[in-house]
Amino acid sequence: MRRLLAAALVALCLCTAAAMEAEYMKYKDPKQPLRVRIKDLLSRMTLEEKIGQMTQIERKVASADIMKKYFIGSIVSGGGSVPGLKASAEAWINMVNEFQTGSLSTRLGIPMIYGIDAVHGQNNVYNATIFPHNVELVKKIGAATALEVRATGISYAFAPCIAVCRDPRWGRCYESYSEDHKIVQSMTEIIPGLQGEIPSKYPKNFPFVGPRTKVAGCAKHFVGDGGTTDGINENNTVIDWNGLQNIHMPAYIDSIRQGVATVMGFVISDMWGIDRITTPSRANYTFSVQAGIHAGIDMVMVPEEYVEFIDDLTLLVKKNLANHLGSKEHRELAREAVRKSLVLLKNGTHADDIGNQCGGWTIEWKGLSGDITSGTTILTAVKNSVDPSTEVIYNVNPDREFLKSNNFSYAIVAVGELPYVETFGDSKTLTIAEPGYSTMTDVCESVRCVVVIVSGRPVFIEPYLEKIDALVAAWLPGTEGQGIADVLFGDYGFTGKLARTWFRTVDQLPMNVGDSDYDPLFGFGYGLITSPRVVKASQ
């Protein structure tokens, strides 16, 4: 009798399991309307599963077991959070696959979303292409960035930053495109580059993400973040309603029209943003969570404090998208963007440093000086461009005796800012890194010189201007320094214009085009134009 009962129980269990496997679940059926799938999925979810899906944790504390145990909805790689030193695209894909395995093994099999900051290319990944900003090429840059993000198995990019930076003292000004909302609006063309072109019959003002070579974008960080008092990061923005609507809001409206998938500020909080609802931070965490959720936040970015399907990623490997990371085509695009972004303002330590060229949000959160990723430095670019008979001598900080004794014909002085990020980049002085000023003075008083400023924003330069023969704003050119040499040596002309006002003294700040007391060193839209140098075949 006991054997018969045991056999019956086994048969019953097998039948129940088979019935569960055979159960039709609308939310898994791609043929069902989206609203039907969402309603069906929500009806099946427990409270714990819903809370888990609203949680985004940091990569370094994630594991397949954590994803499964807490039903985590998303993972973020903070600046510099990588699976290993100089990790390959395959290493990134394997890591993402492991996390996804945990998510798909849960009761409902909801895949997690992996998000990463890609503010100027897939900037966390070694050998990726780091791009400068350029209006004309922004859609192509977005498409190239999407390919390089996808090449690492990631489908969600926290870009673009559509802040309108009204004060260059702000440490995130280089993430912004301009002080002028019209330029920032035009830069939202990066969204169809990242996400894909919206089909003609697709509903207007709805999120859209295209094929598997595209990523979901995120308009960030929150309306008004570029207008904080004194340019202090995460400070208050004091502005009237008309100013908010006319300066800071238009790019968000345009982003929605472009079909942007998410807006920071779905709605996803910024990193540790929920903590900062109270002053001091985390003074009443329970209240902060409640207030944030009631305000409409859909996902909370809580990197460390926590108690596309694997088939898609496998397909990416089969398609060998990893080869797109730092591809020749992408580097040529970045080189073109560098050429078109240089601004000639007048007709160092940064000459041989790829880290300084790229700035913050490159490999590490704050960025680093030195050989942090692959690319072409300004020095290498110059050596690649000169005649073989020309001797190029590099000296970080030459003294006057060295300059006189060598009888140089010309000097290129590359100076600027060291890498920084966010609050660490807030500056009251906006000076370039030492020994930049002394190097400019010594060199330009001894030799005919071109000064190339590598910086994320305008810097203090007026007292030294008369000593300089030519001055070029290179901004943060990224990995392709050859684009600078292309223009310096006349293969291409200077075409760039200032997207930001270049101040005389920091006492004038904030100062933006249209202000009644507008008296800049170089005004918004300024830039000298030159033609390419034509060399005859007989020469």
UniProtKB/TrEMBL annotation:
First and last residue of the signal peptide: 1-19
One Pfam family from the record: Glyco_hydro_3_C
Entry coiled-coil feature ranges: none
All residue ranges annotated as the Glycoside hydrolase family 3 C-terminal domain in the record: 348-528
Enzyme class: hydrolase
Glycoside hydrolase family 3 N-terminal domain segment(s): 46-264
InterPro entries reported for this sequence: Cellulose_Degrad_GH3 (IPR051915), GH (IPR017853), Glyco_hydro_3_C (IPR002772), Glyco_hydro_3_C_sf (IPR036881), Glyco_hydro_3_N (IPR001764), Glyco_hydro_3_N_sf (IPR036962)
Molecular function GO terms recorded: beta-glucosidase activity
Keywords in alphabetical order: Glycosidase, Hydrolase, Signal
Catalytic activity: Hydrolysis of terminal, non-reducing beta-D-glucosyl residues with release of beta-D-glucose
Entry EC no(s): 3.2.1.21
GO biological process: glucan catabolic process
Family statement: Belongs to the glycosyl hydrolase 3 family.
Protein name, entry field: beta-glucosidase
Organism for this UniProt entry: Phtheirospermum japonicum
